[in-house]
Specification:
The structure holds 2 protein chains of 2 kinds.
Chain A: H1 3-13, H2 16-19, H3 21-41, H4 49-56, H5 63-96, H6 109-123, H7 132-151, H8 158-182, H9 187-194, H10 203-222, H11 224-230, H12 234-239, H13 244-266, H14 272-284, H15 288-312, H16 321-341
Chain B: E1 3-12, E2 15-25, E3 30-34, H1 41-48, E4 56-61, E5 64-65, H2 71-75, E6 78-81, H3 93-98, H4 113-125, H5 141-154, E7 159-163, H6 171-188, E8 191-195, H7 199-205, E9 208-213, E10 216-221, H8 223-226, H9 229-236, E11 240-244, E12 251-255, H10 258-268
Parallel strand pairs in B: 3-8, 3-9, 6-7, 7-8
Antiparallel strand pairs in B: 1-2, 1-4, 4-5, 9-10, 11-12
Helix pairs in contact in B: 4-5, 5-6
Classes of the chains: A mainly alpha, B alpha/beta.
């Protein structure tokens, strides 16, 4: 092989981001921040960028600024937290299960969490949404365990996990619909909660998910190298001194908890947890120390886009962000399924 | 002797692979476990590397039960290279070798000088230093196997176990890998224990050979001791003629096809 051929090959297989990771990660962050500012001004009421800036610096005297602080700011903050939670949850799952199709919604966590949260909301009307997080966590865990048990046959192949996950999700979805039909009078709160949207969320939602993200995300990122080691295969990882089963279980628990917290505050917003880690892997490569933060930022960008599109397409009508992500994410999931199946 | 299995019963789920296996890896030597498919040689190696906990008996490393020693501590004493190896997508040689330092590092600390030196040394002795920026998936089979061995060396252990390190490799690459292991044993005093398929390669490179069949240790000793027509027939179920290697003088087993078997029995009468 000539030296130019070697160089050409090397250039092709190192992405720009792998050579300048900080620069690109920084640009993504800046982009997300800019988009957030823009997002503050989009909505049913016309708010100018000047109003947004005024509100940010704390001048909330006029009505427009109040709208920004009361209605727009919580949803932009939620877009960040939910986007990060879902994307990092998916990134961890893909790394731990070594399955490109893994994501909170694919392995049933999202719908399981949704069902459990809904059950609680209907059983105890008026219960604060903060109490929904633990219920959603248990529901998500049960759903994930169910998928794993049903898919397990001397190991669980990616395709089988994905297909069983779809089936289990469908079952929980049916359960959710059943609850809606059986309790037509009590559903309004549950329905608002469930639609997979950032509509009508207040600062209290932000405070409910914040501790989960603030604690779990740093823990996971500190463990990024463990995820890389798990990627070498069970035997080599164990040979390198990693307690494989324990590490895997802990990381999966973290991932389920993150997804459940996201579902508890924003309902079932699909496909972010699947797509964002894929985008991050494409751009930043497979090392989790770069991949996970990048996935988080892509998650934020996707959430902001989905939320803004939902608000901006036909105001004052709100299209739930979960619907937008499903429209974009569904085809991508099918593409992955076909590609993995080959 | 640092590493031994004492009366271990090895099983996957309910299927018992070895009933009562006792063997001691000789220090500072190259040992080879050999036997037909399903003889339990890879299983035995996995047990020695604490990857498979024995159902009965114990594996002893430096006088302590290996299952009772923290796995991270074991990883600083013993390196294992499994048979099936998956490199992360588009990872460079140097980055892959760095994984060998995992048992020496804690999550938040930046790598120490000792870490850097160990990685550098591992790449030097395996002649992979000049490939450091290349991607692992672009390497030849032999180069790639040398990189994996470099990863094990970066662990900085005196004991290195390898499960069929030459399988799926062309003969030139097989020699490349085995020469490297021989050199590591001779120059660095590493204890090497590996599973091999090819008895002639085993005879050529091993100081000590364990011959296994159906989960039992049939015999052990130098290649000259264990590679006889009788043992080959007994263990592998093939007639063969064992002759000295024309250059090295080590035993060479030449399997015989049906027609030749008849000739041999006439000749030896």
């Amino acid at each position: 092989m000539t030296s130019t051929a070697i160089v050409a090959q090397r250039v092709r297989s190192t992405t720009l981001a792998q050579r300048h990771p900080r620069l690109l990660m920084g640009s993504l962050g800046v982009l997300a921040v800019l988009l957030s500012f823009y997002s503050l001004s989009v909505g049913a009421t016309d708010v100018s960028m000047a109003d947004v800036l005024k509100a940010i610096v704390g001048d909330t005297t006029d009505q427009a600024a109040q709208i920004v602080v009361q209605f727009q700011l919580p949803r932009v903050l939620l877009a960040w937290l939910v986007g990060i939670a879902l994307a990092i949850s998916g990134g961890v799952m893909q790394g731990v299960i070594r399955n490109p199709l893994a994501a909170p919604d694919v392995v049933g966590v999202t719908k399981g969490a949704g069902f459990a949260g809904m059950l609680l909301l209907l059983a105890i009307p008026g219960i604060p949404v903060a109490a929904v997080v633990p219920a959603a966590f248990v529901g998500g865990l049960v759903a994930a365990a169910l998928v794993y048990l049903l898919a397990y046959r001397r190991g669980a192949t990616p395709i089988r996990i994905a297909l069983v996950g779809i089936a289990v999700s469908a079952a929980f979805e049916a359960g959710i619909r059943f609850l809606l039909v059986r309790n037509p009078l009590d559903v309004s709160a549950a329905l608002i909660w469930l639609t997979g949207s950032l509509f009508g969320r207040s600062m209290s939602s932000v405070l409910e998910i914040l501790p989960w993200v603030a604690v779990l995300v740093p823990l996971i990122i500190v463990w990024a190298r463990k995820l890389d080691v798990l990627g070498l295969g069970d035997d080599l990882a164990a040979g390198l001194g990693e307690p494989v089963e324990r590490t895997r279980r802990t990381l999966l628990l973290f991932a389920v908890a993150l997804a459940a917290a996201a579902v508890a505050v924003s309902g079932t917003i699909g496909f972010i947890g699947l797509i964002a880690p894929h985008m991050a892997r494409r751009v930043f490569g497979g090392r989790h120390l770069a991949l996970l933060p990048a996935a988080g930022l892509f998650g934020v960008l996707l959430m902001l886009f989905a939320d803004m599109l939902g608000r901006g397409i036909a105001p004052p009508l709100e299209i739930p962000a979960g619907l937008i992500t499903a429209v974009v994410g569904g085809p991508y999931f099918l593409y992955l399924l076909v590609k993995t199946g080959r | 002797m640092r590493l031994q299995a004492q009366g271990v019963q090895l099983a996957y789920d309910q299927r018992v692979v070895a009933q009562d296996l006792t063997l001691t890896i000789p220090d500072g030597k190259v040992s080879v476990l050999i036997g037909p498919n399903g003889s339990g040689k890879s299983t035995a190696l996995r047990a020695l590397a604490r990857l498979l906990p024995p159902a009965k008996g114990s594996v002893i490393l430096d006088g302590k039960s290996i299952q009772d020693t923290p796995t991270k501590e074991v990883a600083r004493l013993l390196a294992i290279l499994p048979q099936v190896l998956v490199a992360p997508e588009s990872i460079s040689v140097e980055d892959l070798v760095w994984f060998g330092r995992h048992p020496h590092r804690t999550s938040l600390k930046t790598p120490s000088t000792a870490d850097k030196e160990a990685v550098e040394w591992a790449m030097q002795v395996t002649s992979t230093a000049e490939l450091r920026h290349q991607h692992v998936d672009q390497l030849s089979g032999g180069q790639r196997q040398r990189v994996w061995i470099a990863l094990c060396l970066a662990q900085g252990t005196d004991l290195i176990l390898l499960d069929e390190p030459t399988t799926y490799l062309d003969v030139a690459y097989q020699l490349e890998v085995l020469d490297l292991l021989h050199q590591l044993n001779q120059e660095q005093g590493k204890t090497v224990a590996m599973v091999l398929h090819d008895f002639n390669m085993a005879a050529e490179y091993a100081d000590h050979v364990f011959v296994m069949k159906s989960g039992e240790l049939v015999t052990q000793g130098t290649p000259e001791d264990v590679f006889t027509c009788d043992i080959i027939r007994d263990v592998f179920g093939v007639e063969s003629k064992v002759v000295p290697h024309p250059v090295s003088g080590k035993p060479m087993c030449i399997p015989l096809r049906a027609g030749l078997r008849a000739q041999l029995s006439v000749a030896t009468g």
